[in-house]
Specification:
The protein has 275 residues and is of the alpha+beta class. The chain is built from eleven helices and six strands. The protein is 69% helix and 10% strand.
Length: 275
């Protein structure tokens, strides 16, 4: 009789656990979600913690941070703990966890839940990749990039003094002296990228800025809702910094040139007035 009652209790616990697992499985099964238009169970955030793009909570197990895998395992552990709610009637001690864990139907449901979890993580990582393609915006050092770009596209612009000196040397036949001064003259020459190079870079980063603005704010992927607004906001900030890096420099350079020209014209006007 005790064995009979014991078996009834085991069946009762297994029925409770199976019912709970079946409900959980139905809530994260992508086919069932699409068919019944089920809302996501969890909302996670995608944000930039330089230099890494991170999910909160994490979607990958073993990252050292709280993850959705931990959530699901905690839920299933809670289902299993029903078997610890009373002592065994056949021995007066212990619980029914061994019988529950050995039940094939329960093990199959746990495998299905775990499978849906892994499949959804892959889809989430694919979603993340569309943001990671712009990681150079915050990983690349702006000053270093600008200096390297300057060295690659800068053109030599000989000053008017250089041209006059070169002409006088040619007329005097001082070719030998010119060759000796070539190295020194090269150092004195102003090297600056052409305006077209600045324009090309500004257009390039304006295009990236538009692409970033077109990225999604939120996305429902299976049983997860991803809020990417925090990351998107950071990306917009960095895209704007890259545009400003070139546009501000070009604006300052043009302003300085205009100021120098204005000063020259004012000085020339004074000289002409005196004459």
């Amino acid at each position: 009789y005790v064995g009979y009652v014991n078996q009834i209790i085991v069946e009762g616990f297994c029925t409770i656990i199976v019912s709970s697992l079946e409900y959980l499985q139905s809530q994260i099964d992508p086919v069932n979600i699409a068919r019944l238009d089920i809302s996501p169970l969890i909302e996670i955030k995608l944000d930039l913690v330089q230099p890494e793009v991170l999910f909160f909570p994490e979607v990958v197990e073993g990252s050292g941070r709280e993850s959705i895998h931990d959530y699901v395992c905690s839920w299933m552990k809670g289902f299993y703990n029903v078997a610890r709610s009373m002592k065994r009637v056949d021995s007066g001690d212990g619980d029914y966890m061994l019988e529950v864990e050995a039940r094939l139907e329960i093990r199959d449901l746990v495998a299905e839940v775990t499978g849906h979890l892994c499949d959804n993580v892959m889809l989430v990582k694919e979603y993340e990749s569309q943001f990671l393609k712009y990681s150079h915006l915050w990983r690349q050092d702006l000053d270093q990039y600008f200096q390297e770009w300057w060295g690659a596209v800068a053109e030599e612009e000989p000053s008017s003094d250089d041209e006059v000196q070169a002409q006088s040397e040619d007329e005097a036949g001082g070719q030998g002296l010119k060759e000796e001064q070539d190295e020194e003259e090269m150092k004195e020459r102003t090297r600056k990228p052409p305006l077209e190079a600045f324009e090309a870079k500004i257009v390039e980063f304006l295009g990236i800025q538009e692409e970033v603005n077109a990225l999604p704010y939120t996305e429902d992927i299976g049983w997860l809702r991803i809020d990417s607004k925090p990351l998107r906001s950071q990306m917009q900030y960095w895209a704007a910094k890259w545009v400003a890096l070139f546009s501000d420099f070009m604006m300052c350079d043009i302003t300085d040139s205009m100021s120098s020209m204005t000063a020259f014209m004012e000085s020339a006007a004074v000289v002409l007035a005196q004459e």
